[in-house]
Amino acid sequence: MRETLTIAMPKGRIFEDAADLLRAAHFQLPPEFDDNRKLILEIEEEKLRFILAKPMDVATYVEHGVADLGIAGKDVMMEEERDVYELLDLKISPCYLAVAGLPDTKLSDVAPRVASKYPNVASSFFREQGEQVEIIKLNGSIELAPLIGLAERIVDIVSTGQTLKENGLVEYEKICDITSRLIANPVSYRTKEQRITELVNRLAAVI
Ligand code: PRP
Question: Domain ATP phosphoribosyltransferase catalytic spans what residues (predicted)?
Fold first, then answer.
């Protein structure tokens, strides 16, 4: 008997791209996929169960083994070291991490501050640049920080660049490109190897 595979999907901006990729790989997603209130969705015929999680939490579900697989942005993987395997670059939801701030401004000499949803990434980036900065962790609307004087720089995701533009901010440095990855729980990867390989192959064929 085929065992059920549980996949943690990120709610929000990656969800649509991930669902499109699954459809392209001929998974018959149920109509509930378009109604994002339901948090657990199943495709009976494929023996697949999807759990809909906050993007930052996907790797947590996978690491704890309650999801065998997950779709997580490289940004999330870089921010938190997790005991999971990265199986595939799905090449969806491309964006990049960048340092931004108000135009023609410098980091303060006295107490430079950087706001970010990615404190670890931001901290290593500035350390490598030889800059000692205080990192201020925010959970969203990061672009507010320089506008109201909380920080001189932000480290955040840039996709279209529209949010920076509309808030009068400019990019100072690009840190790295980001796409979404298929990740796996190491134990599931051994015990459900055949099913996982089958799914990886179906996805890889349409990337
Ligand atoms: C992300 C990111 C930027 C914005 C970038 O925020 O933090 O604010 O998208 O996209 P753009 O370059 O296309 O404008 P998100 O919408 O995920 O919400 P958040 O503010 O809660 O992080």
Answer: 54-204
Q: Quick check: CB of 157 below 6 Å from ligand 1?
A: yes
Query: Strand pairing of 180-184 and 95-101?
Result: unpaired
Contacts 24+ apart (CB under 8 A), 162-168: 164/100, 167/143, 168/102, 168/103
| Adjacent-strand bridge partners of 114 | 135, 153
Residue type, 42: E
Global pTM reads 0.93
Q: Which two tokens stand for residue 146?
A: 């320089």
* Average pLDDT by stretches of 10, the chain with 207 residues: 92 93 94 84 93 96 98 97 97 98 94 97 97 97 98 98 98 98 98 97 97
- List the residue whose alpha carbon is closest to atom 2 of ligand 1: 157
CA distance 99 to 187: 37
Q: Taking the CA of residue 32 as centre, how many other CA atoms within 13 Å lie in the half-sphere pointing to its CB?
A: 11
Helices and strands (DSSP H and E) totals, the chain: 8, 11
CA-CA distance, 16 to 42, in Å (whole number)?
A: 17
The amino acid sitting at 155 is V
Ligand 1 mean position, distance from CA 157 (Å)? 6
